[in-house]
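Course assignment 3, question 2. Fill in each field.
Student: A.L.
Task: Predict the tertiary structure for the chain below.
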Amino acid sequence: MRIRLVYRQSQLFYILTIITVLLVTLCSVSFASDNVLSDTAVVAVKLDDGPHVFLETDSTAIVFYYCNEAIESRTFVYTDTLYFSGFCNDTGFQYVVPPFNSEFLPEVYIGASKIFAISDIHGEYEHMADILRKGGVIDSDLHWSWGDGHLVVVGDIFDRGDKVTECLWFIYRLEQEARVLGGRVHTLLGNHEMMVLRGDDRYVNEKYLNGIARNSRIRHQDLYSPDMALGRWLRSKQVAIIINDILFVHAGISPIIVDSGLTLNDLNCNVHTGIDMRSSRLAFSEPVKFLLGSLGPLWYRGYHYEMENRYPKATNTDIDRILTHFSAKAIVVGHTEVDSLCGLYDNRIFAIDVPVDKLGSLQALLWENDHFYCVNGDGKLVPLE
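Answer field:
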């Protein structure tokens, strides 16, 4: 990300003489000190992007950016943990890439004191940071301040917006900071993560296709391949988890998943299998093919409306069966946009994907003391009763 601050001053000397002084100051901006949504005029240079970290070997990494219309890269030798400072307008930011753990994260968590959930960020870095700050999850310097609380990002960090990389590294860092203080950050896979990882670029912002992908000659999906730091990290993430008997999943759980007897582990393992599966094999692989389709946890919209010739709108009986099957008391979903964060089916379903352009902010779901709240863009809590 390259950010340019432009200040203009003009003075009139005498009647016939006008001297205009244009002062351009280029500032390095750290994510850790970025004044999100400030009143200062900030103009982002369109195509700059990074860092991306290619893990060449177990001890050598190549870090690269698209910066100032060129690919800039540096090679780092490390043991266990990779440390490096940003070198493209993020020089104040320190990156830490810990050793990769190939084991899947837990699927069920109990005893969380509080839960904060957001969804469908779509590269809107400023809006994401703003709602987290308003909700007390991060402080004014954008560091974790949620203590032992849990933050859930319910899918769709990717696509549409032009600050996807910033969002990913920000969440990546918060995950590390939260663990130190006894908290947790859960990043769930959404349909747009799956699209990018499988090479579907239809909704990728042109900044990435025309910038770093074109100039590095690395396909956009390969920026998130298994030998890239962010690619490995994304492949460690779940599709669905349960915290305090609340099921979090990007799109939803369809009744046919219950009919099929699929468990939470089945959902997570099969979707992970599908990430790097060739289309020829995927076409004949069940239940992977089914779970990546319209009735799967990444695409289902039946809590909101019927899909003609595909499936009907879920009934109250369907919701009862789904909750019973997964031993849950509520389900939190994104994916399908609602006018404002709300409870459906007598607050057994919470829909949290909201129109940022219309509202001017994200909204978040807060669970605390066994009560659910909507956190508005101004930080006010609205009980969902």
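Instructor remarks: The chain has one domain: 108-383. The first strand starts at residue 2 and ends at 13.
Grade: pending
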